[in-house]
Write a structure and sequence with these properties.
Number of strands of chain B: 10
CATH topology of the largest domain in chain B: Rossmann fold
Distance between the termini of chain B: 22 Å
Largest interface: A-B, 21 and 31 residues
Shape of chain B: globular
Number of helices of chain A: 10
Radius of gyration of chain B: 19 Å
CATH class of chain A: Mainly Alpha
CATH architecture of the largest domain in chain B: 3-Layer(aba) Sandwich
Number of strands of chain A: 0
CATH architecture of chain A: Orthogonal Bundle
CATH superfamily of chain A: MetI-like
Radius of gyration of chain A: 26 Å
Order of helices and strands of chain A: HHHHHHHHHH
Strand order of the largest sheet of chain B: 6-7-8-3-9-10
Shape of chain A: extended
Strand content of chain A: under 5%
Structural class of chain B: alpha/beta
Helix content of chain B: 25-40%
Oligomer: heterodimer
């Protein structure tokens, strides 16, 4: 439910600026409030910033060592404790983890979305499913993985189920939203021809939602890839995230971290290209 | 064939949208409902196939009261009632022939609908219907690429695929240019004459009604104020159909 905004009194406002120029807006209270808030926040930030710096802190030295670490990571990447093939395999594991969770998640979410779109389902079911999904979405993916690792133990099982869980909630919401955009007249038309619900879903709802289904599923795949890396580090689910965790926290080898970061960036670039192609393909 | 008796409908429980509407239509005729905006034309049309559940009255279609049917029976009854719309309401990402084939899904099983299984006979019929409305070259075009007039003709072909006894047309030409209007209205009249289908059309345009209707029903403020052959539609009758609501109470209306 969207709450109506508070009533803003507009009519009595006087245009600002020189009389000969025509103003584009009235100056109302809301704009003034926003401006004041920004000014206050800026002031607070500036006066508190120095207090955050510890006593022994030397800005110059800290900046130098930051630059040094960046240089090691990005300009001198090389491997020490692992092989490139092993890293590629780990990257593959992370990709497969993301793929598997997106696949299962999108299939489950499709049916949940059908049951929670206002176009097809009764209101109580819509509200019920949507609120459960909202609660699931409110808890971050990594936390779900940790919660499931209580049951399954740290590792791949908890990762798959935890990421899938959050994916279902996320995709149910966006699929249902895109189904809601379908005009009720279309459904009515199909009903007027005596079509059964299954036929209406297959012949009217799905054709309209294919483009958004594809693009949302792909976005979720990107999110799941990032989560798979984080989960690999946080919950020992393996993959490139685990390798990243080992090099950075166990071996303190930033040269190796650099290689992995480049690998992940390369794959992110590939994903970006694919999603661009997908978009041009579905929006002819 | 279709008789509507004492149909009444109110959307908010207070203001009557329809009060005591009765009329009947005959097979093989074009019946046109005219009246000012908001008079209840669309409500009448949608009550016939129960897209709007009416409050009172009876709608006899082939001697069964549409209001008494349960969900499954209503679905079966709807299969024989074609309907075309002002906004065409086609499935735009699909091709023209796919849209036409939707017309025959009502009578078929769940699996047919889910997997789009159509027999060659049905596909041939769909192509023939597209030919009938002059769109055989556009059968494999996505409907979103068609013009308004073409979309409406696909809509007619889709309704014909239902083998309807009656076709309900809700402002079928309101979004069309004059040439497409004539094409669409010609097709609708031919259906009544050649195929014996009853055609019931909601219209704004009195001149179009004069050219195409056999029978005219005038609606004002939710009541039938004119119900006669087209020849009897005089200028005074039109004035009465389109007069302001305020003058309606206690005026000559009750003669009908």
């Amino acid at each position: 439910m969207i709450k109506p905004e508070n009533q803003i009194s507009i009519p009595t406002q006087v245009p600002v600026g020189p009389k000969f120029s025509i103003p584009l807006r009235f100056r109302d209270r809301r704009r003034l409030t926003i401006l004041l808030t920004i000014i206050v926040l800026t002031y607070l930030t500036i006066i508190t910033l120095p207090t955050m710096v510890p006593n022994q802190f030397k800005l110059g030295a800290a900046l130098m060592s930051f630059a040094e670490n960046i240089k090691i990571m990005f300009l001198q990447p090389h491997l020490a404790n692992t092989t490139f093939v092993a890293l590629l395999a780990a990257l593959g594991q992370s990709i497969l983890l993301a793929f598997l969770t997106t696949l299962i998640g999108s299939m489950l979410a499709f049916f949940f979305a059908l049951a929670s779109t206002r176009r097809l389902a009764p209101t109580w079911l819509v509200l019920g499913i949507q609120s459960v999904m909202a609660v699931i979405r409110a808890i971050p993916t990594v936390l779900w993985v940790l919660i499931y690792s209580v049951v399954f133990g740290l590792g791949a099982n908890a990762a798959v189920i935890g990421i899938t869980f959050h994916s279902v909630a996320y995709l149910t919401k966006v699929y249902a939203d895109s189904m809601d955009e379908l005009s009720p007249e279309i459904i009515e038309t199909m009903q007027a021809m005596g079509l059964k619900k299954s036929a209406i879903i297959r012949q009217a709802v799905i054709p309209y939602m294919i483009p958004s289904y594809l693009s949302w599923t792909f976005i979720r795949f990107e999110i799941n890839f990032a989560d798979a890396i984080a989960v690999g580090a946080a919950a020992g689910a393996g993959g490139i995230g685990y390798q990243l965790f080992m090099s950075s926290s166990f071996y303190f080898n930033f040269h190796e971290v650099g290689v992995m970061v480049y690998l992940i960036l390369a794959f992110a670039l590939v994903l970006e290209i694919i999603s661009y192609r997908l978009r041009t393909l579905t929006h002819q | 064939m279709l008789t509507v008796n004492h149909l009444a409908k109110s959307y908010d429980g207070e203001k009557k949208s329809l009060t005591d509407v009765s009329f009947s239509i005959r097979p093989g005729e074009v019946t046109v409902i005219i009246g000012p905006s908001g008079a209840g034309k669309t409500t009448i049309l949608r009550s016939i196939n129960q897209l709007i559940r009416d409050d009172d009255g009876e709608i006899l279609f082939d001697d069964t009261n549409m209001r008494d049917l349960n969900r499954a029976q209503l679905r079966r009854a709807r299969c024989r009632i074609g309907m075309i719309f002002q906004n065409y309401n086609l499935i735009e990402p699909l091709t023209a022939i796919e849209n036409v084939l939707h017309g025959c899904l009502g009578t078929k099983s769940n699996l047919t609908g889910i997997f789009s299984i159509y027999s060659n006979q049905e596909k041939e019929e769909a192509l023939k219907l597209l030919q009938k409305v002059g769109l055989e070259d556009f059968a494999y075009q996505q409907c979103r690429n068609l013009s308004g007039g073409q979309k409406q003709r696909v809509g007619i072909a889709r309704a014909l695929m239902q083998h309807p006894k009656i076709i309900l047309c809700d402002e079928p030409i309101a979004s069309l240019d004059p040439r497409s209007t004539i094409t669409v209205m010609d097709i609708l009249r031919d259906l009544a004459i050649n195929d014996g289908i009853s055609v019931l059309i909601n219209l704004h345009q009195v001149d179009i009604a004069r050219n195409y209707a056999d029978h005219v029903i005038g609606i004002n403020n939710g009541q039938v104020v004119f119900d006669d052959r087209i020849a009897a539609l005089s200028d005074t009758a039109i004035a009465r159909i389109y007069q302001k609501d305020a003058n309606l109470e206690g005026s000559a209306i009750h003669e009908f």
